[in-house]
Amino acid sequence: MFKLLDGPQTLGRGWTFWSCFLAVLAAALIYPVFADSYDVGNFSYFLIWVFMALGLCLMWGYGGMLSFGQTFFFGISGYAYGVLAINMGGGSTTIAALMLSVIIAMIAAGILGYFMIWGGISGIFFGIVTLSATLVLAFFLGQTAGPEWHIGTARLNGFNGMKGMDPLTIGDFYIEGSALYYVMVALIVIVYIALRMLVNSRIGNVIVATRENPQRAEMLGYDVRKYQLLTFVIGSGLAGLSGALYTSWGQFITPSSIGLPAAAMPIVWVAFSGRSDLTATLVGSFLLLFGFQTITVYSQQAALVLMGTLLLATVMLAPQGFVLGVGKLVVDRWTGRRRRDANSTLADTGRLQSDEA
Amino acid sequence: MQSRHLLRTAVLGVALGAAAFGAAQAAEPPLKVGLLEDVSGDLAFMGMPKLHGSQLAVEEINKSGGILGRQIELIHLDPQGDNARYQEFARRLLSRDKVDVLIGGITSASREAVRPIIDRTTTPYFYTNQYEGGVCDASMISMGAVPEQQFSTLIPWMVEKFGKKVYVIAADYNFGQISAEWNRKIMKDLGGEVVGEEFIPLGVSQFAQTIQNIQKAKPDWLLTINVGAAQDSFFEQAAAAKLNLPMGSSIKVMLGFEHKRFKPPALNNMHATANWFEEIDTPEANDFKKRWHAKFPDELYINDMGYNAYNALYMYKALVEKGKSTKLEDMRKVIATGEACIDAPEGKVCIDPKSQHTSHRMRLISVGPQHEVTVVKDYGTIKPYWLGDIGCDLTKKNDKDQYTPSHLPNKS
Amino acid sequence: MSAELFSVFYQFADVFAFLILSAAGLAIVFGMMGVINMAHGEFIMCGAYVTVGLVKLGVPLAIAQGLAAVTAGLIGVAVEYLIVRRLYKRPLDSLLATWGLSLIVTQSMLLIVGSSVTGIGTPEGSFAIGGYTFSTYRLVLFACAVAVLIGLYVIFMKTRFGVMARATMQNAAMAKALGARTGRIYAISFGIGAGLAGLCGALYAPTMTLIPTMGATFVVESFVTVVVGGANVLLGTAPAAVFLAMIRMALNASYGQIIGQIGMLFAVILIIRVLPEGLSSVLVRRGR
Questions:
Q1: Three-state secondary structure along chain B?
Q2: Bridge-based pairing state of the strands A173-174 and B135-136
Q3: DSSP class of C278
Q4: Which of B85, C104, C125, C250 could form a disulfide with B79 if both were Cys (CB 3.0 to 4.6 A apart)?
């Protein structure tokens, strides 16, 4: 099992990395003891979005499929959670609503993925089809304001958004504040470890091989379409998880969480962090969400300018993504004497793992 | 954060000054007012006047001794038109800054984003826009005009003046659809006919087809409840195609100041009812305009939202001072008496105890060929009666719901 | 009857012009050069603002529009030189960089110019057929769209620059070895693309509300048109625009704008499903 965790497709291995990992995890676990309740809640809010980023990282960075429609699944699942939670009556059934809504998002991903992947759609066309589907959903939901648009007792309520669902609840206990925080941290750790094992497994190798050269992978006897579909469904399921958690967090979801510019955000997070690695995406997305919010709070009208500058500077100065760029710098310093030659060739290729794998 | 910093310094200065005269007063911490207004993104041109209105009111109130002797600290965050940011920042203001009152939001979606959060606290929330109406929620006080104040004045006048056939173009979301529903209901009562209704997705900017549909339907007048900068292009394109129909609206002129932004005669023959527009010519209104333009000389137009945002702080002051408390329940006790009134630049306005919406002095204006605005009719004070009539009574029961003519409370 | 027929043509021409003018610049920058330019809308916005600014200074509208397109083109060359040039090997990173650029530009415009600008009004001129009146300027837009298509064809198919540009886009190393100055060709092509975007903004400026985020209303349509057009941009964009314009016009007329918008996006999904390489793949195969 440890071999899967420390495999060739992910950065960071050995005792150094895992002790750092455990240290960060420990710090995260004792954080609520010291921080004020607002910060704890705010951190769990950021973690909600990280699932969508990890899913996109899997599809785009590992599978080579740039989906511009992660918010499609985010929205389906977010609305599904609302509909289910309202109709099933809240309370502990919200847990079931959460699971069901992720499954619904995965079924939707299965259908759309089958439609696209078996149709031979790839590259930028993949992005445009997913974006179109996303915009269709957003436009459709935007005009469902009338009372005739309802599922059971849940009104879709158009652009103003659906509300009135319970947050995640066990018995009479709302999972909020520190409780929500610990649930989020646990989920992130589980998803992160599971994805790491997935990409380092035999399946992961085929996924990466397909990204590099689909024909060659096919010649080796793999039905690459199945692997692509699997990647798409898992990645979209994670977007769905984000969506359901978001609805539960705010007891509210609107079509603008689906349409542009929301649809562009996951791509920005992942591209900023460094799409070719899960750890980088995890750390980078969190930092970027935190950074953007902080900038917005403290700089008023200049916020968007600063955000734009941050993105532009990242692309120009750290071609592999911010976190990967910084991470590599640190690692290079650390092991600089031993691996200087290997590193310089690696930096030139611009790709991280493909050459080694 | 400059404004916040400046305010803090001002607070400090006043507090120190007060300390020199009487130490008791200086010990009072300032009242914290949380403000959420979009000053970047698509809605910035509407959000800026709202921020300005709040800043002006805070400055005036602080100069004249604050609320119950306490100064006001205004904490403004910019949600950039993003509903998720509205939720983040509402939580931040409530649990980090621990504000005494929350004000703001432009779109109905942003208000609905804030409501589930505010409903679980005991902090009052002021929504300062005119909107589609119907929110029955004890935590929320609505300062803007609602359909029964705007449409029940505008539509009969338009029918009488121009004829019984109306064509509606409306933005395809809650506000547009509910406004169209109001129009249908009122037209039916008047024996008029809705010859066409067209719902336009937000962000659409091309209207050649719409203009032709209108010409085909041959209405006597148009009801234009299109929303947003992109949809406003309709006026320019209709003028270029010589559509030349009288228009009525509940949102044009006083909100988006289209008559200032378009070249005449695009807005010619537009009629609207509102509680405020800059062209009101009374001593109170003129005095208010003078103070505003002295503080913000670059303001193109003092719009209705900015005006309501200004009033919100004075209404808050009145409620707190009458109830001698900043608690929501004490403020609501004042509202329940029906005596929660202020003398606003438009005239006297009061909060209706049943719905917690505000009564307004409604006026009807017409735009001329050179975009000159004239007040045609003064309706006097009109109460927000509809919610109370259909059974919303916040003095007895907190529904936390939004009603429309086709979604009424269950009579139990 | 003839009035109805003309009105159908007029509506088609209107949607077609909108699609072609908003997509032409992107067809070069994204279709040919492969740069995912998220700041396309901001070049459009730039064209519109420059036009309005010049008209207010007393420059005649047509000249102002030409100057606006040139300004946008020059800014495009500068952007290519400073940013895009370094990203040709990393096309997906150009997405992030141009998105950052678009955030900076829209917000800076808001801070510098203010949240809205007074319009300049559509040029006078309307005519009536049957019970309908039409704006003449809309037909001017259609004529401009056709002129842009012809101009692009001539530049890229009939001139020496065009041949070298197409060679460079196909295989930059080879073209360079044969003596083409690829760096310059990239810069000029990007400049043309940005200039066309500016032209779009300039032409639509009199008919629209000017706000810093106005470019966003064009972006989805332009990307969709270029992608449906497919790999061979010069062949594909025009038929794609015709096709999408017909679908949208028909649905707009019978079911209203929301169905028009949803229907057009559905059509895009279906076309790409049937023709994963876009419309031009069929045309090229037929041509061989």
A1: CHHHHHHHHHHHHHHHHHHHHCHHHHCCCCEEEEEECCCCCCCHHHHHHHHHHHHHHHHHHHHCCCECCECEEEEEECCCCCHHHHHHHHHHHHHHCCCCEEEECCCHHHHHHHHHHHCCCCCCEEECCCCCCCEECCCEEECCCCHHHHHHHHHHHHHHHHCCEEEEEEECCHHHHHHHHHHHHHHHHHCCEEEEEEEECCCCCCCHHHHHHHHHHCCCEEEEECCHHHHHHHHHHHHHCCCCCCEEECCCCCCCCHHHHCCCCCCCCEEEEECCCCCCCCHHHHHHHHHHHHHCCCCCCCCHHHHHHHHHHHHHHHHHHHHCCCCHHHHHHHHHCCCCEEEECCEEEEECCCCCEECEEEEEEEECCCCCEEEEEEEEEECCCHHHHHCCCCCCCCCCEECECCECCCCC
A2: unpaired
A3: -
A4: B85
Mutation target among B209, B215, B231, B257 for the C interface, most CBs of C within 10 A = B209
Q: What is the pLDDT of residue B4?
A: 45
Q: How many Cα atoms within 13 Å fall on the side-chain side of residue C255?
A: 11
- The contacts of residue C223 (CB under 8 Å, 6+ apart) are A128, A131, C26, C30
> Between residues C217 and A290, which one has the greater pLDDT?
A290
Give the closest residue to B306 by CA, choosing from B13, B56, B19, B41: B56
Q: Say whether residue B245 is in contact with chain C using an 8 A CB cutoff.
A: no
Q: What is the mean pLDDT of residues B138-159?
A: 95
**pLDDT digits over A95-136, tens only?**
999 999 999 999 999 999 999 999 888 888 888 899 999 999
Listed range (A143-147, A197-201, B13-17, B245-249) with the worst mean pLDDT:
B13-17
Round to whole Å and give the CA distance between A167 and A244: 10
Contacts for A326-334 with beta carbons within 8 Å, 24 or more apart?
A327/A11, A327/A12, A327/A274, A327/A280
CA–CA min distance A106, chain B (Å): 24
The Cα of C159 is separated from the nearest Cα of chain B by a number of Å equal to 35
Residue B411 CB-density burial (10 A; 0-12 exposed, 13-18 middle, 19+ buried): exposed
Taking residues A85-91, report their average pLDDT: 88
Alpha carbon distance A50, A28 (integer Å): 15
B40's tokens: 């970047």
Contact B273, B252 (CB under 8 A): no
Contact C135 B261 (CB under 8 A): no
Nearest CA in chain C to B217: C131
Q: Which residue of A has its CA nearest to B401?
A: A164
Tell which residue, B366, B355, B360, B339, has the closest CA to residue B394. B355
Is B352 in contact with B358 (CB distance < 8 Å)? yes
**Token digits for B161?**
């003046």
- For C62-121, the pLDDT digits (tens) are 999 999 999 999 999 999 999 998 888 777 778 889 989 999 999 899 888 877 778 888
- Which residues of chain A lie closer than 8 angstroms to C90, CB-CB? 319, 350
CA distances from B194 to B132, B166, B180 (A): 19, 5, 10
